[in-house]
Design goal:
Helix content: 25-40%
Number of helices: 2
Length: 66
């Protein structure tokens, strides 16, 4: 029993970093337009989805022609 308690305590103390999602409300396009310091018009010409982050999550790379 004491081993289980020590193991759980060890796991609890080792989990010092926490990652969470952004659950806040998203701003509207109008609010973002007003806050932006620069705005451009472009076209996506290439999407590369063969990239992965250090945590194994799929990442996307976009090539944009302005």
């Amino acid at each position: 029993m004491i081993r289980k308690v020590l193991f759980v305590l060890f796991l609890f103390l080792m989990s010092s970093e926490v990652y969470c999602c952004d659950c806040s409300e998203k701003s509207s396009i109008g609010e973002n337009w007003e806050k932006a310091s620069q705005v451009f018009v472009g076209k996506v010409v290439k999407v590369d989805s063969s990239l992965y982050s250090e945590y194994g999550q799929k990442m996307y790379s976009y090539t944009i022609k302005i």
